[in-house]
């Protein structure tokens, strides 16, 4: 019985050591792949005129990394501003449509349904953008103050959209409490 236990222990030890060696090979392969990707990215950056500095390991230096983070933050801020601006334009266009809805159109429910569909699409866009801002806040790419300011802007747009929707309903004589 001792013979079998010692044989079993030897097999476990051998299997354990073989597994560790295979892990080292896969880690070495991953490191090699990452180094190749890094060098190809550096070559692509050099070809495009990017002069980011690197340290002795080939990794971006801390000043280069902070510049990259700053540029990503600026790009994120621009995208956020663009999204709010686009939504503002959509709400303004709907407000204008609701304001110009005439009594002549009031008998045409199809015109109302088209405008109502446009309003619903804008509402969905506002809700989706609100979700995006929340995800950005949770991921840490938006500060609490920025998130709250954007929430207030979206809330104001939703209020304007609701008021325009009410004007539209009055123009078509639709009572919706």
Characteristic terms for this protein:
177 residues, mainly alpha, Methane Monooxygenase Hydroxylase, Chain G, domain 1, 4 helices, elongated
Account of the protein in words:
With 177 residues, the chain is mainly alpha-helical. It folds into 2 domains: 1-45; 73-172, Up-down Bundle (Methane Monooxygenase Hydroxylase, Chain G, domain 1), CATH 1.20.58. Helix content is 82%, strand content 0%. It has helices at 2-47, 62-100, 109-139, 144-172. Helix 2 (62-100) packs antiparallel against helix 3 and helix 3 (109-139) runs antiparallel to helix 4. It is elongated, with a radius of gyration of 30 Å. It starts with a helix and ends in a 5-residue tail after the last helix.
Low-pLDDT sequence parts: 50-54, 59-71
Residue share in helices? over 70%
Sheet having the most strands: none
Through-space gap between termini: 85 Å
Which term fits the overall shape? Answer: elongated
Give me the number of helical elements.
4
The CATH topology label of the largest domain is: Methane Monooxygenase Hydroxylase, Chain G, domain 1
Helices and strands, in N-to-C order? Answer: HHHH
How many domains in all?
2
Portion of residues in beta strands equals under 5%
CATH class of the largest domain: Mainly Alpha
The radius of gyration computed from the alpha-carbon positions, rounded to a whole number of angstroms, is 30 Å
> What is the structural class?
mainly alpha
- Mean pLDDT comes to 74
In short:
The chain has four helices and no strands. The protein has 177 residues and is mostly helical. It starts with a helix and ends in a 5-residue tail after the last helix.
